[in-house]
Amino acid sequence: MQLPYLFIFPLLLAAASDALVQDFCVADLSLPAGPAGYPCKKSASVTVEDFFYHGLTTPGSTKNKVGAGFAAAFDAQFPGVNGLGVSISRLDLEVGGLVPIHSHPSAAELVLVAEGTLTFGFISSYDNKVYIKTLNKWDVMVAPQGLLHFAINTGNTTVLAFASFSSQNPGIQTTPLALFKNDFPTDLVAKTTFLDVEQVKKLKALLGGTN
Amino acid sequence: MQLPYLFIFPLLLAAASDALVQDFCVADLSLPAGPAGYPCKKSASVTVEDFFYHGLTTPGSTKNKVGAGFAAAFDAQFPGVNGLGVSISRLDLEVGGLVPIHSHPSAAELVLVAEGTLTFGFISSYDNKVYIKTLNKWDVMVAPQGLLHFAINTGNTTVLAFASFSSQNPGIQTTPLALFKNDFPTDLVAKTTFLDVEQVKKLKALLGGTN
Amino acid sequence: MQLPYLFIFPLLLAAASDALVQDFCVADLSLPAGPAGYPCKKSASVTVEDFFYHGLTTPGSTKNKVGAGFAAAFDAQFPGVNGLGVSISRLDLEVGGLVPIHSHPSAAELVLVAEGTLTFGFISSYDNKVYIKTLNKWDVMVAPQGLLHFAINTGNTTVLAFASFSSQNPGIQTTPLALFKNDFPTDLVAKTTFLDVEQVKKLKALLGGTN
Amino acid sequence: MQLPYLFIFPLLLAAASDALVQDFCVADLSLPAGPAGYPCKKSASVTVEDFFYHGLTTPGSTKNKVGAGFAAAFDAQFPGVNGLGVSISRLDLEVGGLVPIHSHPSAAELVLVAEGTLTFGFISSYDNKVYIKTLNKWDVMVAPQGLLHFAINTGNTTVLAFASFSSQNPGIQTTPLALFKNDFPTDLVAKTTFLDVEQVKKLKALLGGTN
Amino acid sequence: MQLPYLFIFPLLLAAASDALVQDFCVADLSLPAGPAGYPCKKSASVTVEDFFYHGLTTPGSTKNKVGAGFAAAFDAQFPGVNGLGVSISRLDLEVGGLVPIHSHPSAAELVLVAEGTLTFGFISSYDNKVYIKTLNKWDVMVAPQGLLHFAINTGNTTVLAFASFSSQNPGIQTTPLALFKNDFPTDLVAKTTFLDVEQVKKLKALLGGTN
Amino acid sequence: MQLPYLFIFPLLLAAASDALVQDFCVADLSLPAGPAGYPCKKSASVTVEDFFYHGLTTPGSTKNKVGAGFAAAFDAQFPGVNGLGVSISRLDLEVGGLVPIHSHPSAAELVLVAEGTLTFGFISSYDNKVYIKTLNKWDVMVAPQGLLHFAINTGNTTVLAFASFSSQNPGIQTTPLALFKNDFPTDLVAKTTFLDVEQVKKLKALLGGTN
C-alpha cells in the first residue's frame, strides 16, 4: 500500500531546523530580537494559544488624569503576530477622556470606533495641516506612519475603540512624556520647543520629570 | 519682523511635484496602480475624507446561502490607506452563518470579535495542523499570510467581527469559488483535488460554474 | 615595501563579528530562524558547498498515487540561499501524473519545462479566472504569490520541470491535504467547503485524515 | 567581422520601455509619485546632472528666530536619489542657534558635524530616555526613524553639519509647528499636550497659528 | 433564488480601478516604470499569454567571440513577472564558450545546468575569496546579489543552463564592457583598475570603446 | 494620588523581552547576525555611546600605493546603525590619490566633498555610459546600488570626502582586488576579463594574488 505522495513535503522540509518551514514565526520572547523581529519558536511548541489573545477583553484602567485606558496586543504580548506586520490595541476613554498627542515611529494606525463618539486627528508634516474628524460607531480613520495624532472623547458616553497597526511593534512616542517625563534639562526643552521655562517646569512636575 | 525659520521646509519642499513631500500617498484611483499601490493624489486635493471611511457602519447583506455579510475598507474603497500597509473589513454572520475556506495572498489577517461567538481557524502549510479557537467579544486571533482559514458563527446570536490586514489590498481567494465558480474543466478540478466528478458537477451547479 | 591600501577593508571590517561583513548569509540551520531567515554561519566555516546543491539531480520518487516526484532546494536543504530571496525545486511527473491544487504563501513561482508536455494553471482571486496553458520544452510560466495553481502531465512521456521561487522558503499549502489530511472535523470541512459529508469522509480516508 | 556577444544585452533589454532596464530610476517630477517614489525619466533624457547636486554649497538663510539655515537634497530637489533610499541635507547654525524638536516619519538620520560644536539628542519612545551628546568636527551620531530629536549650537562658533537619511524623502515634522503653526483649536492643543491655554495662544501668535 | 454570497467580493472590489484588486500586476510597458516596477495593465486586457513566455525555447546566437548565447525573460520581455520578484534567462555556451565577469546589481542568481559541464564561480567582497565549482546536469549554484561571477563551458559538449533571479529586473553589469566598451578615458581606466594603458587601449579596440 | 496614565506603556511593554519595544536595535556584535542584521542589545545596556561614533575624526592611513585613506562607520564599527538602513564612511585622498573601481552590492552611495576637488563617476549597466563629474566643496553625487564607481583627486590639494550609504552594511567589492588579489587562476581571469595573461600575472604580483 502506498503513501499519498504529498507526505513528501513535510518529511523533506522537516529534515532541518523547522523554524522556517512553517509559514509563520511565533516569537520566542526568551531570545533577543533582531531588526525583523524575534526568533521563531520551534514548531513542536507552537499552539493555537500563540495566535489567540484574550487580553483585550478587559479595559486598561482609566483611573488616571486623562481618563484613558489602554491594552496592547503587540508582539511582546501576542507572540503570534511576530513577523506578520499587523497588531492591535484597545482604547477606553471616559467622558472627556483623551489620548495625548503621540506618534508611532514604526506603523500606520487604523482606528475603529466601537462605542461612543471619538474625535480623532493627525497633523501633516508637509504643511502642518490638521486632519480632524468626529467618528461614531464603526467609523474608521487612518493616521500615516510617524505623524502626530490624538483622540478625544467628545461625546456624552464612554468611548471604546480599537487601533490596528501596520507593524507587530508600532512603537509609541507620546509627545508630553517625551518632553517632560524625563531628565531632559528644562532650558533645553524650553529652547527646542519655544515653551516658557515656567511651563516646562510645571509639566515636569506634573508628569514626573527632573532637571 | 522675521519669519520663523521653519517656513523654509514647506517652501523648499514644495518646489517640485508635492506628491512625496507629504508623509502619505492618498490613492488617485483614476490612474493605473503599480506593484506598490496607486499614484498619489496631489496634496491640494487631499481632504480629511480621504482618511475616513463610513462604509463599515452598515453590514453587507447576509441574504445569501452562507448567511454572511461583508464590507471592505481596502484601498479601492478607502484611498487613504494606499501605501500604508494596513486595511480593515467588516463581517456579519447570521446564526449558523460562516465564511468559507479562503486565503489572503497578500496579507496576514487579525480578526476581532465585536458581537457573538465566532469559531475561527487556519491551517498550517507545514503539517496541515488546524489551529482552531472559539472567540467571544473582543477576543482576537491572527491568521498568517496566504494560509487557508475560515470562520463560523457557533453561537446563538449574530456575529459581528472586524478583520484587520497587513496590506492595503490583501486579496481574497475563496477556495470553493476558485474551484467551482468558473470554467475550470470538471475533470481537471476532480483530478487536481481528488474530488469525485459528481461532487464537482454538483458544486459547479450550485456556485455558477461551467464545463 | 607597502601593502596595497585596499587591504584596509577586510582588516577593518573583520574587527567585529564578521557575519554581516560578507555579502551573503549562509544559514546556520542549528540556530532558530527569525522572520527574515536563519542566522548566518561564521565566514570561516563557509565553503563553496554551501552555495552548491546536487540534490536535484535525482528525482523524488513517483511511486505514489499521483505519479509525481518532488525535490526541493529551499533554505532548509540549500543553506546558501538564506536571505537571497530565491530558491528552486524539481518536479517529475509520470504519464498522467499531476501536482494537486496548492499555493505558496510566501513566493511567486516560475515554472520551466525541461522534458515532456505540462499543462499548468493558476486561478485569479479577483474573478476566479483560470489562467491555463500547455507548456513544452523550455517554455516558462509564472504563478503569482499565494494563488492556487496546479500542473498535469498531458503528454505521452514523462515530464521534468523546475520551479523557481521568489523566496528562499516559499511554503507549500496543498489544498486536499490542508482539508483532508488532518483532524479538521468532517462537518466543519463540509460546511466551509460546500462539499458533501460523504465526499469529505472518503477523502479523509484516502489521505489519512481523522474526525 | 563579428560583434562582441555582449552587445546582446542592451539590444535585447532595450526592446521595451527602457525605464527599468537601467539600474536607477531618476525621478520624473512632472508625473505623480506613488508609494515607492516617482516614475522614472526615460534613459535618453538622463544626464550626469541628475545624479549631482550643487545646492548644498550655499547655506540656507539663518536670518530667523532660531539662527538656523537648512538646505535639502531630497528627491524633490535631487531627482537622482529617487528609489535609492538615501538623501542628505545641510544645516547651518549661528552661535546659539538650534533646530527645534522634530522627527522624520520615514527615515533614520545620521548627522555629521563639519564645523563647530553641536549638541545633538533624540528621545526614546520606550522610556523617554534622552540620548544626548556633544559632537565636534567629523563626529557622527544617528537618530532612529520617527523619534523626536533636536540639535543646538553649544559652541562659540557657527556650526555646519550634514544629515544623511535612510530615505529619498525622509519627511520632517517639527513639533512646535505641528502644534502651533496651524488652525489646530487652542483648547484641543492644550488638552492633548497638557500645556496651558495661555502658552498655546502665545506660541500660536509667535509661529503664525490661528484659532 | 439567491446569489451565492461570495459574488460580493468581485462586485465590491471592482467598484474602483481594478488594477490592484487582482493579486498580480502585469506590466503595462507603454507607461513609465517606477522604483517598484511598471504600472499594471487593466485586468480586462490581461490574458494567459502575459504569464507565459516562449522566448527561451530558442537560444540566443553564439556566433560571437565568446561562444555564448543569451535570452532573457525579465519584465521587459515577460510582463507577467512585474512586481513578482522573480525572473529567468537562458544561457547557451559552445565548447570553450564563457560568460565574462559580471554582476547583477539588483538580484541574486541561481543557475541550473541542463546540458553539459559548466564551471561557475563568484567572488566574495569580504576577502576576495573565489567560490568556484564545476556543475553537471541539474546541479544548481547560487551567486549573491551584486557580486562578480562568471561561467565557463569546461566540458566537451555545448552547455545549456538557466539562471533564475530574485528580481523581475536583475540588471547586468559586465565588467569588461563597463570598463572598455564606452568613452571612459583610457588614463582613468588604467589608473582606477591598475591596468597598463596599452592593455586598456587594446581592449577598447576589441570591444568598441573610444578615448 | 494617581499616576499619569501613560506610565502604562513602558510597564506593559516591558512585560516581555524588551528588545523590540524600543524603536531601535543596537547591534549585539557578540551574537551571529541574520539577513536583516544583528540581534539587539538589551535596552538596559544601551547607552548614548552606541549611537555616537568618533572614529571618523582621524583619517585612515594614506601611506599606500593609491594615496587613499578609508575609515568606516558601518554596523560592525557603529552598532547604533543596525537595522536603520544608513551608514557613513570617510575618505582621504592625497594629491593624485584615487579609489579604484568598486561597487557596493547592498547599497547606494551618496558622496559629499568636504575638502579639495574630487572627480567621481559611476558606470551604467544598461549602456555602459560613464556618468562622471568633478565635485568641489559641499557638492554631492550619488551612485546607484551595485554599479561600478570610482573617485580621483584631480585637484592640487588633498581631498576629504564622506560617503553615506542606504544600508548599515553596504559591502565593498573592489574590482582589481576581486580579480587579482586571490587565487583565482590566471587563465580563468584572463579568459573571463579579456585581459592578457601577462597583464593578469603582473597585477597578481602587484596585489598579492597567486596561481
UniProtKB/TrEMBL annotation, chains A, B, C, D, E, F:
Belongs to the germin family. Mn(2+) binds at residues 102, 104, 109, 149. Residues 54-201 form the Cupin type-1 domain. It comes from the Eukaryota. It is found in: Secreted, Extracellular space, Apoplast. This is Germin-like protein. Oxalate binds at residues 104, 109. Keywords: Apoplast, Disulfide bond, Manganese, Metal-binding, Secreted, Signal. One of its GO terms (cellular component) is apoplast. Gene3D superfamilies: Jelly Rolls. Disulfide bonds join 25-40. InterPro entries: Cupin_1 (IPR006045), Germin (IPR001929), Germin_Mn-BS (IPR019780), RmlC-like_jellyroll (IPR014710), RmlC_Cupin_sf (IPR011051). GO terms for molecular function: manganese ion binding. Residues 1-19 form the signal peptide. The keyword Manganese applies. CDD domains: cupin_OxOx. The keyword Secreted applies.
